[in-house]
Design brief:
Elements: E1 15-17, E2 20-22, E3 29-33, E4 40-45, H1 49-66, H2 71-87, H3 89-100, H4 104-124, E5 131-133, E6 141-148, E7 151-155, H5 163-175, E8 178-182, H6 188-201, E9 208-210, H7 216-225, E10 229-235, H8 238-248, E11 254-258, E12 263-267, H9 273-285, E13 295-301, H10 302-317, H11 337-352, E14 356-359, E15 363-364, E16 374-375, E17 378-381, E18 398-404, H12 407-415, E19 419-420, E20 422-426, H13 430-439, E21 444-447, E22 462-463, E23 466-467, H14 472-477, E24 480-487
Parallel strand pairs: 7-8, 7-10, 8-9, 10-11, 12-13, 12-20, 13-18, 17-18, 20-21
Antiparallel strand pairs: 1-2, 3-4, 5-6, 6-24, 11-23, 14-17, 15-16, 19-22
Helix pairs in contact: 1-7, 2-4, 2-5, 2-6, 3-4, 3-6, 4-5, 9-10
Length: 491
């Protein structure tokens, strides 16, 4: 499977450092494979400490002038980047589908979602206002300024290769920071294409630097040790996030960590079941279940349990699994064989503990490759609370469902997790809405809604799901610090 790009130059395959496209000095490369076929899409640099250090040097030099660039001018450049992203949405979507596997329509949708953050922060760049503070004595003026934190190191995941880049880089540039970025080894091509468009939009040399490597640790260690890097923004696993937090303490960097999730999805017996099924379909099966906010633990009140299972199973069984190039596909391949193995392990474990497979439950084999990365969308009923899939992110199209009796019981079940990113619940009792919202331990709550993310809303979690927020006015503040100024002798 291959996609023909209208602008072939968007398929960039080199690092971008100090305004120049370049290979790794060592000459080392590694392949980016199509997850559906296992066939390489491109060869990219396998960079090391040399490129990581060069990126910081470039960002440090560029920061002097970029932070002094008027906010309106920065906003104009970022807005131009947004316009170019939207103008090339189809090509960018094809690149995502080629390296990540999601269906093309969904990939193009991700581009629009990514661009919404670029546009939002272009506008927010001119609104980073400080404060005038009433002085306690005569002859004194007191104020608080917002300033860019400095060089930002962004480390992004493979599941949303455009959206995660946009959510981190756009606010950094808007705040006046410069960026060194390492996209996921599985999906670097989307990041490089976006940088190509940023260069075209007029982002100055050294302001945005991308380093591609198969070894995140090699690059991250350089950035952790360099005191000039003042912020780390990371989306990925909780163990890696904790490592970054620990190591960054030596230089006291600012951190924004969007880590693991294990979202509960609660259906109360007074809910609109059709709406709840639709909300679960949107939340659970987007990107084949490979999202940090997708429901991993589905709790349905006993009175409506059987009816809900019947309605959901019919919808899930009708999902079309196939390659990104097929317009009918709704679920693409999983990212790699390791992901499939984890899904199979979770389903097997749940069944051993008494779960029933209502639909799916197996790998789907095609003639594209011997070791298929397609997995059938699956509904598991009567899932025991001890099952692995209720305690670990499955990152796949698996809907494990457990019955509950009372509101108090399900709140305890929902909060029985070290994670606290997203939660969902469906009810038509407005008094219950406020009780449950207050009781859930998480950073994001969907009430009668399965699609949560928006550029104007703060995105992030609590507990082992990390800290810091992306999107919204709070997302811009993550890239700034406050400078208090007290001027005396004015009377």
């Amino acid at each position: 499977m291959s996609f023909e790009l209208q602008r072939k130059e968007l398929m960039a395959t080199q690092n971008f450092i100090s305004g120049a496209w370049q290979n790794a000095q060592s000459g080392a490369t590694f392949p980016v494979n199509n997850p559906a076929t296992g066939v390489p899409v491109a060869q990219v640099p396998n960079s090391d400490e040399t490129e990581a250090k060069a990126a910081v040097e470039a960002a440090a030099q560029a920061f002097v002038t970029w932070r002094a660039t008027p906010a309106k001018q920065r906003a104009t450049i970022i807005k131009r980047w947004n316009d170019l992203i939207m103008a090339n949405a189809e090509d960018l979507g094809k690149i995502i589908s080629s390296e990540q596997g999601k269906p093309l329509a969904e990939a193009i949708g991700e581009i629009a979602y990514a661009a919404s953050y670029v546009e939002w922060f272009a506008e927010e760049a001119t609104r980073a206002n400080g404060d005038i503070i009433p002085a306690p004595v005569r002859g004194r003026k007191m104020s608080a300024y917002k300033e860019p934190v400095g060089i930002v190191a962004a480390i992004t995941p493979w599941n949303f290769p455009a959206a995660m880049i946009a959510r981190k880089i756009a606010p950094a540039l808007a705040a006046g920071c410069t960026v060194v970025c390492k996209p996921a080894a599985e999906t670097p091509l989307t990041a490089l294409a976006l940088v190509k468009l940023a260069e075209e939009a007029g982002v100055p040399a050294g302001v945005l630097n991308i380093v591609i490597t198969a070894s995140s640790k090699v690059v991250a260690d350089v950035w952790l040790e360099d005191a000039r890097v003042r912020k780390i923004t990371f989306t990925g696993s909780t163990p890696v996030g904790k490592h970054l937090a620990h190591e960054s303490s030596r230089t006291l960097k600012k951190l924004a960590l969007e880590l693991g999730g294990n979202a509960p999805f609660i259906v109360f017996d007074d809910a609109d079941l059709e709406a709840a099924v639709e909300g679960l379909m949107v939340a659970k099966f987007r990107n084949g279940g490979q999202t940090c906010v997708c429901p991993n633990r589905i709790y349905v009140q006993s009175k409506v349990y059987g009816t809900f299972l019947e309605k959901l199973t019919a919808r899930v069984a009708a999902l079309v699994v196939g390659p990104a190039s097929d317009p009918a596909s709704q679920i693409g391949p999983m990212i790699n064989a390791k992901a499939i193995a984890k899904i199979e392990e979770h389903v097997s474990d749940a069944v051993k503990r008494g779960a029933r497979v209502l639909t799916g439950g197996q790998r789907l084999f095609t003639d594209q490759r011997a070791e298929s990365t397609y997995y059938a969308p699956t509904v598991l009923a009567d899932v025991d609370r001890s099952s692995q899939c209720l305690h670990e992110e499955t990152f796949g199209p698996i809907a494990p469902i457990t019955p509950f009796d009372t509101e108090e019981q399900v709140i305890e079940m929902a909060n029985d997790s070290p994670f606290g990113l997203a939660s969902y619940f469906y009810t038509n009792d407005m008094r219950r809405v406020h009780r449950v919202v207050d009781a859930l331990e998480c950073g994001i709550v969907g009430v009668n809604e399965g699609a949560l993310a928006a550029e104007a809303a703060p995105f992030g979690g609590v507990k082992d799901s990390g800290y810091g927020r992306e999107g919204s006015v709070h997302g811009l503040d993550e890239y700034m610090h406050i400078k208090y100024v007290c001027q005396g002798g004015l009377d």
